[in-house]
Amino acid sequence: MYTILLATHSLVRWLILPSLLFAIQRAFRGWFSGKSFSPFDETVRLATVAVTNIQVSFGLVLYAISPITNYFSHNYQVAVNVGQMRFFGIEHVLMMIIAVILISIGSVKVKNKSNDKEKFKTMAIWFTLGLLLVLIAIPWPFSPVAQRPFFRPF
Ligand code: HEM
């Protein structure tokens, strides 16, 4: 269960990143070209939020069953001083939850705007902030804090 979930959680990042990039690219293009906010843009907005929320659900279950976070919560005094432990115990989770909150707030704000330009602008700004945080909080193989592979086999 743990191995499959970890591999799935790793893989879903490759859905989140293109979704966010596609949504942001459409948002900036719409903002500066004065296009109308189409039903397709609406679908892109909703799909992006859905994918990020699914990843949070996987993350929460992973947090509950991971030996790393388990060790972290039972040996906090020691583990908080170990970079990799602290990353998965606190930093990764906190940054990702904030990122998803930013994306979700942005999405609701887009829905409540009546002007198309404002919709694109709001989506561009909030989704970009979320993406930056996601990029920072992913344990890339080249990360100075915690390194994980680009793809984890099932
Ligand atoms: C929403 C954006 C998120 C992305 C893109 C993301 C991405 C990742 C990646 C790429 C890994 C490394 C997987 C591997 O070892 O191959 C990872 C590990 C992990 N993530 Fe996330 N994550 C996200 C959100 C969350 C959230 C919200 C939580 C918890 C509530 C969470 C909990 C964890 C845990 C506990 C691990 C390490 C598990 C272990 O190695 O035992 N993640 N995440």
Give a written overview of the molecule:
This protein is mainly α. It has 6 helices and no strands. 26% of the residues are buried. Residues 6, 9-10, 13, 16, 52, 55-56, 59-60, 62-63, 66, 68-69, 88, 92-93, 96-97, 100, 134, 138-139, 148-149, 152 line the site of protoporphyrin IX containing FE.
Features:
single chain, 154 residues, mainly alpha, 80% helix, binds protoporphyrin IX containing FE
Topology:
Layout: H1 2-33, H2 39-65, H3 67-74, H4 76-79, H5 83-112, H6 116-137
Helix pairs in contact: 1-2, 1-6, 2-5, 3-5, 5-6
The structure holds protoporphyrin IX containing FE.
Alpha plus pi helix count: 6
Low-confidence spans: none
Order of helices and strands: HHHHHH
Overall pLDDT metric: 97
Our measurement of the CA-to-CA distance between the termini, rounded to an integer number of angstroms, reads: 10 Å
Largest sheet: none
